[in-house]
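On clarity, I found the account of how folds are encoded harder to follow than it need be. What matters is that the chain and its backbone geometry are given together, residue for residue. For the editor and my fellow referees, an illustration may be useful. For illustration, here is how one protein appears when written out as sequence plus structure tokens:

___
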Amino acid sequence: MKKYFLGMTSAVVSLAVLTTLAFGQISLPLMASIPLAFTVQDKQLPAGEYSVREIGGNPNALVIRSENGSGKPVSVLTITGASLRPKDKGELVFDRIGNRYFLKDVYSPGNFGRVIPEGSTERHWERSSERVSASNVQETTVPCSTK
């Protein structure tokens, strides 16, 4: 009975890991021309050409880097996300709160992508925006290409 339980537990854990690896990956690097200044995990970045890549083959760790050398690269830990509508092209999804933009999701072609957790700056802007108007939070999408 103990061997059966250990065998089943091992099979379930293996299946969970393989499912995460198979479905959580995105096609990287992604390249995007971002026409607006934006924030990623409390780091402000200027408008420009950017690449998004995995760090060391870890699909949960991404680095966002300016291709023209302006600003420092930003590393961020993400979680797996999925879109209900398959995407023909990659895209970056931003939340616009008031007059600030926050990188929220990174999608490659297909259904799967990465969700970037909110930073403290975004939470602060959401709270202050709620006092003004709920319609101040809007979603903006920037198309990407794979390199």
